[in-house]
Amino acid sequence: MKSMAAIALSFVLLAAGCGSASSGSSDSTTVTVSGKNWTEQIILAHIMASTIEGKTDHNVDLKEGLGSSDVLVQALQDDNIDVFADYSGTGMVNILGKEIAGEDTRETVLEKAKTGYEEEFGATWLKSFGFQNTWSLIVREETAEELGIETFSDLEEHAGELVLGSDAQFAERSDGLPGLQKEYKGLQFQDRVEMDIGLAYDSLAEGEIDVLVGYGTDGRIPALDLQTLKDDKGYFPPYDAAPILRQEFVDKYPEVKEALNQLAGEISEKEMAEMNTQVDLERRSPKEVAEEFLGEKGILE
Question: In CATH, what number does 29-132+239-296 get?
Answer without folding.
Answer: 3.40.190.10
